[in-house]
Amino acid sequence: MSINVNGVTGGAPKANTNQPKNNTQANASSGSNTQTGNNSGPAAVYERTVRPDTATLNEIRAAVNSSTERLRELVSRLLTQQGQTWGNAFNINMIDIDDATRAEAASLVAEDGFWGVEQTAQRIFDFAYAISGGDPERIELLRGAVEQGFKNAERLWGGDLPEISRNTLSRVRELFDNWQSGSSANAV
Questions:
Q1: Degrees, nearest 5: CA angle 88-78-119
Q2: Taking the alpha carbons of 49, 50, 55, 57 in that order, is the dihedral positive or negative?
Q3: Are 161 and 172 a contacting pair, CB within 8 Å?
């Protein structure tokens, strides 16, 4: 099974086809001559269908796209003001940041900002919850995927992630714990 932005792909677990289809077959394979139950054919097989919450996923996607565009515009404006281009921006040692840009960037990563710990952790959790369709049996799978995502980010970062990222991961873990324990007042 794989998980992507558009939902869960793969499918539900399949029934074990090696199991007996009825009691007669079970008894025959065990060497017993006794028969229990009726012999009306195979039992019904229940397959769980995960239905991702596409409305929530679309809301998260729209909010992230909007805020990402705002952040791109902020950086672009800053670099334009500096007379730089995207191509050579990373070859310079220092960029002067005006007070207004600094304040806007700080507000985005503030505790209550869109990229702050609480809102980012809640979006990550909401995304995981939405793609699970609210199925608590998928908690460990989703928790593992989030953990792996942060490990990948750390590898790409080249060392320990910044404190805000570590705090975000801690908060996401709390939200998963709340969901798992059933005390999910802030978890959904």
A1: 110
A2: negative
A3: no
How far, in Å, are 1, 94, 98 from residue 47 at the CA level?
15, 58, 58
Residues 6+ apart with CB under 8 A from 10: 1, 2
What gap in Å lies between CA 118 and CA 68, rounded to an integer?
17
**Tokens coding 169:** 């991961």
Name the nearest CA neighbour of 116 among 58, 163, 176. Answer: 163
Is the whole model's pTM more than 0.70, yes or no?
no
Q: How confident is the model at residue 170 (pLDDT cuts 50, 70, 90)?
A: very high
Decide if 78 contacts 97 (C-beta within 8 A).
Answer: yes
Phi-psi region of 127 (alpha: psi -120 to 50; beta: other; left: phi over 0): alpha
- Give buried/exposed letters for 31-45 (b at 16+ CB in 10 A, else e): eeeeeeeeeeeeeee
Tell me the H-state helices in the chain: 23-30, 54-81, 99-109, 117-132, 139-157, 163-181
Question: What's the pLDDT tens digit per position in 29-87?
Answer: 444 444 445 555 566 666 667 788 888 888 888 888 888 888 777 777 766 666 655 55
pLDDT of residue 17: 38
